[in-house]
Amino acid sequence: MTRVLLTDDQPLVRHGLRVLIADHPRLEVAGEAANGEEALRLAERLAPDVVMMDIRMPGMDGIEATRRITASPGTPPKVLVLTTFDDDEYVYGALRAGASGFLVKDMDMDQILAAIETVAAGDALIAPSVTRRLIAEFAARPAAAPPPRPTEGITAREREVLTLVGRGLSNAEIATRLHISVATAKAHVSRLLTKLDARDRVQLVITAYELRLVTAPPA
């Protein structure tokens, strides 16, 4: 059973998510928080597997709460950020803060449930309808971003794979593009995670933009 902490300053949003999760046989709501400070306290006390985190909240926002939760000692919960499509200029910051991905609030219910399980299993997930556009926009102007991860040990092929990861391609799509097997594509991604000391695929996407391997969404 995957335990989920819901964090949103809108009670109706939390209620909707609670009802949605209650009908899922492998998910349960561990608790609810109305702001970042409360999310921090409940994450420590309840030890959920996943924290669904809104970004814009009074007091401590979702970016700072995400940063603190993912930096907690031991095995902190995964953070899955909720955002809106047009006006949320904090998505890139949330990913840099350690979120394992983000969703848009108007996604299909089944997609939201699948995303929770995906993140709980240790994978990263970014809503495909907004990923390339949003990350490209904000990665193109990372005002105070730290220096890119060292890449001296990256091979030419791994750099190709990193570029395609940055463009949002799945392992199967990378395999097709590079005329390799899916297993080989997955192996390249795994080596990139190790060499770049990246926590998950989201961090590989960020690194691809930091290195300017990808500077605009694909056509």
From TrEMBL:
Response regulatory domain boundaries: 3-120
Pfam families the record matches: GerE, Response_reg
HTH luxR-type domain mapped to chain residues: 147-212
Classification via Gene3D superfamilies: 3.40.50.2300
SUPFAM superfamilies registered for this protein in UniProt: C-terminal effector domain of the bipartite response regulators (SSF46894), CheY-like (SSF52172)
Residue positions where 4-aspartylphosphate is found in the record: D54
Cited SMART domains: HTH_LUXR, REC
Swiss-Prot/TrEMBL keywords: DNA-binding, Phosphoprotein, Transcription, Transcription regulation
PANTHER family per the UniProt record, alphabetical: TRANSCRIPTIONAL REGULATORY PROTEIN NARL-RELATED, TWO-COMPONENT RESPONSE REGULATOR
Protein name (record): Response regulator transcription factor
Organism annotation: Streptomyces exfoliatus (Streptomyces hydrogenans)
